[in-house]
Design goal:
The structure is a homodimer. Chain A is of the alpha/beta class. Chain A is 32% helix and 19% strand. Chain A contains five helices and five strands, in the order H-E-H-E-H-E-H-H-E-E.
């Protein structure tokens, strides 16, 4: 059975518990940025309800231009004013050699346009990511930018910036 | 109280329910791409457990180069072989004028490098997004690329591609 058949079956049960329509503007005026990692169930881990916060996730939880584009829409069109950035333990981007990876992909005939290096320490990376958001002039609200490390073995969030 | 104080309080309760360590390679060998929209609780809506799937989210759930970068890492470094793409009803990117938005941001002195237009119909956009992933040579597994529309008023997932 394909993984997606499981998803559709589970969703049919979920619909019965769904609380109903909510505004598209996040209730907590919050956007959360994190990694795509499979061990981060963002709503449960942060106690979020339907309609509470924007959730942005990519490989590494890194502040790429696509994340800044999304945050600009989040703040300018949908009223968010706070940003929470989570990096996490045991990340696939720890020690990731992006230069070698881009060279590998270029062999397919389509050359990557990005330059998104990996990192070594998640807490250190959180501080860099917070700084990157604070320096982006596209975002009208940059006073409340918070950084966390999420422990994927324990489910625990720790504030670091 | 800042929104993040609420998150930390909720997380302290979550830790007690956390199932423990899981491998970083997703159990369902699946990556899910969707919008940052605040009304999509991905784990609950799809019945996912800790460690099951990569979750990628940005403004619009659009297949940007950052999403393709993340999918390339997901497949080449972490073993996923299926992709599920969700667009949704009542999306902030429906009818979004990206050209005007980029011009607005350029006035801050930092010119956007992207070109990520909005869309009109989510089902139509799903088919375009599926096609974009199927055409990306960076991804070794492109046979199982599935498309869905998520109804944010009802919590219901519908397969469309």
């Amino acid at each position: 059975m394909s993984a997606v058949d499981e998803l559709l079956r589970a969703n049919a049960e979920y619909v019965a518990t769904f609380p109903g329509p909510r505004p598209k503007e996040p209730r907590l005026r919050l956007a959360v940025v994190s990694c795509m990692d499979s061990r981060i169930d963002m709503f449960a881990a942060l106690g979020l309800g339907i309609g509470d916060a924007h959730i942005l996730r990519n490989g590494g939880g890194l502040i790429t231009e696509d994340v800044l584009r999304s945050l600009a829409i989040s703040q300018r069109a949908l009223g968010t004013t706070e940003v929470a950035i989570l990096h996490h333990t045991d990340c696939g981007m720890t020690g990731f050699d992006d230069t070698a990876f881009r060279a590998e992909l270029a062999q397919t005939g389509q050359t990557p346009g990005w330059d998104v290096p990996g990192f070594t320490d998640p807490a250190d990376q959180v501080r860099r990511s917070v700084q990157r958001v604070r320096e982006c002039p596209w975002l009208p609200a940059r006073d409340a930018v918070h950084g966390f490390v999420f422990d994927v073995a324990a489910g625990r969030l720790a504030a670091v910036a």
